[in-house]
Known about the structure:
The complex is a heterodimer of chains A (228) and B (210). Chain A has 228 residues and is of the alpha+beta class. Helices cover 50% and strands 11% of the residues of chain A. Chain A folds into 2 domains: 7-43; 47-204, Butyryl-CoA Dehydrogenase, subunit A, domain 3 (Up-down Bundle). Chain A has helices at 48-68, 85-94, 98-125, 134-148, 153-164, 178-195, 199-208, and strands spanning 17-19, 26-28, 72-76, 80-83, 166-167, 171-175, 222-225. In chain A, the strands form 2 sheets. A 4-stranded antiparallel β-sheet of chain A has the order 4-3-6-5. Chain A has a two-stranded antiparallel ribbon with strand order 1-2. Chain A starts with 16 loop residues before the first strand and ends with a strand. Mean pLDDT of chain A is 84; it is low at 1-7 and 210-216. Chain B has 2 domains: 1-44, no CATH class; 48-203, Butyryl-CoA Dehydrogenase, subunit A, domain 3 (Up-down Bundle). Chain B contains 7 helices and 7 strands. Chain B has helices at 48-68, 85-89, 98-127, 136-145, 152-166, 176-194, 197-204, and strands spanning 11-13, 20-22, 30-33, 40-42, 72-76, 79-83, 171-174. The two termini of chain B are 27 Å apart. At the A-B interface, β1, β2, α3, α4 and α5 of A face β1, β2, β3, β5 and β6 of B. One zinc ion (ZN) is lined by residues 20, 22-23, 25, 34, 36-37, 39 of chain A.
Amino acid sequence: MSGTGQLAALTAREAGLVGCRRCTRVWPIERTECGRCGASLESRDPKSLSRVWAWWTVGVMFYFPANLYPMLSTRTLLSTSESTIVGGAIDLIHHGSIGIAVVILVASVLIPMAKFLCIAFLALSARRNTDMSAGSRQHLYELVEYVGRWSMIDVFVVAILSALVQLNVAASINPGPASLSFALSVIFTMLSAQAFDSRLIWDRIEDADKPATPSTGASSPRQEDAYS
Amino acid sequence: MADTFDDLENLIACPHCDALYHVVSPKVGERAVCHRCHAVLIAPKRRAGMSIIMLALSVIVLVFGSIWFPFLTIHTSGFSNSATLLDAAFAFTDGPLLLLSLPVLALIVVIPLARVMLLIYVLWPVVLDRKPYQKAREAFLLSEKLRPWSMAEIFALGCAVALVKVADLALIGFGPAFYMFCTLVVIIVVQDNYMCRWSIWASLDPERDV
Ligand SMILES: [Zn+2]
Ligand SMILES: [Zn+2]
């Protein structure tokens, strides 16, 4: 199938059309509801960025108490101890479980922080010029969307431990207040990433290097063997 | 310029970057990919509808199995405890933490279950070559919107982490529900990658049979 060399692709908006983001069907630009899947249509969501920033702010706000308050409280015969996310990981390192400590630190500290920064960068660069290519920013966005959900793992670990380790006087584990604020932080950050309209990433390039002669029609998508 | 595209039905716009394409339905096993952002646009599979329904049915059975049977057990110095999947969801009982129980239950049980039930509702008439049910479009839209909130696979990895944490404290036993839940996770991942969303939307198009 042909179509290679179509670097400056014609977009639905340039053609005076609007594409449905759920089912990819194309409609005249003035249409507001997709006739195939019923999703609402928006050539570029004008409120996208303000919703991104609103969810982002709430997500960041909940991330602080999530790190300051204890995630777990462990009670044994001799002692009661409470541990925060980072404190729990340090305990694990002292016990020699470095692998698990790394999983917890990556999922609960590195991923949330990186996610806040990446979403902020994507939202800012939608308005300004950056050195990073649109393709790389699209990949970054997909990575943020895919990886962000995995931060929830720490909340699930707390749930499993608290349900399982209820051994009368010998030992018991109970969830701490940080589990709620951490879960809320993950949920709000996911909503922030979902509010971002990734088509904004590509718009600046179109504005920057418009082809001298406008394309006359749409090309075909590339055909690939799915199993290659 | 819109009038040069009088037949909009044969066009698709990439949902990620808005690039416009003519629909060239790929052969079964092939896929159509966006030039610009490399998103997979169309990837039809052989007998996809029936396979998805069978996988969805097995997920329903496994969900109820993994709720019913014991999930994990723990033994140490004369004490023992066994927890079901629901115990894990309802582990948050202290005051405001109670708020967390319902979302956790939704993320690991209710949403995965709801998604496969919606899929069966959507695909059953399509597989039998009948007219789609009236609410099929709403149902599939909802199932797609719920997709990022289905977190069974994350919960499964959470189990692994939790087990390592208590491994030197106590002896852990795996109940039947644990194995059922792991199977369920694998099926959901396979199913999500097998499904060609474009093909399903095309088969639900109300204009298709007019
Ligand atoms: Zn649509
Ligand atoms: Zn694209």
